[in-house]
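User: Run a structure prediction on this.
Assistant: Running it now.
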Amino acid sequence: MMDRDEKSAASRHLVVGEAKDAGARLDILLAARLPALSRSRIQALIKAGHVSEGARTITEASHRVKPGQSFAIFVPESGPAAPQGEAIPLVILHEDEHLIVIDKPAGLVVHPAPGNATGTLVNALIAHCGDSLAGIGGVRRPGIVHRLDKDTSGVMVVAKTDAAYAGLQAQFATRTIERAYAALAWGVPQPRAGEISGAIGRSPRNRKKMAVVTRGGKPALTRYRVTRTVGGGAASLLECRLETGRTHQIRVHLASRGHAILGDPLYGTARPAAVKRLNPETREAVTAFPRQALHAATLGFVHPGSGRSMAFRSEIPSDISMLLEILG
């Protein structure tokens, strides 16, 4: 049951506990009955005093439900996003009322942060999507379910509704998202196809970096295969598939095996041994490459609205292609 105020776009819902719901947590019951709202959004509404039983306001998400109890839920209008919309060009691969898939260029920061308050993907999406953003957590903003580093290019999916956000988050959590990256790395890994495992955590030597650690990290697994060797074996183009999604995972795992990504300012070495195998002209072009040569080439998922399997591919961008030609 829902009553919508045309001016405020707020909504009211009524949920009645059934015999099968006896003893269930209130937040779990409401999330199951109101699939358009994520469980975290439900918990926030309860905490804010927007859920009541009769004249009593319930503020505990862990409240145990009794059969026959009626809960009134008030969902306020989605407020404006804190970041401001900016007219930044986007390459859009797909868009509908639930989500948007974009091909992110290198150099574009995903989310506003200290030092990057404007000019981000979030600013661009707020301007592009406008009123089609139904609200994530009660705020009209895009739902960022995964990130690409500033200087990593490629495919990203962003939610436009709470339900899509929850659905995509669940797929990332259960590792059912298909993700393949193209990485131009130093040397040729042996074997030419395999996997790299190793927990990733904050580096004990440099807090700005991640590292493969023996204690305190999160399990991580990257599968790779060599698709092309260049520069007489000085470098190779790899396809890397993520089984987990840790911060800087591919960059850290490849560097830990001595195959840092070309141009990586954080995990690459200044003058790897492979550089000596290149002629001076090629060496100059490689060492001047301004970013890590890493590209999110493939992204596949189940659409959280329709249940249809979707897959998107982005071709290797011109700067990495040119570097491959120089090396080749």
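DSSP finds seven helices and 19 strands in the chain.
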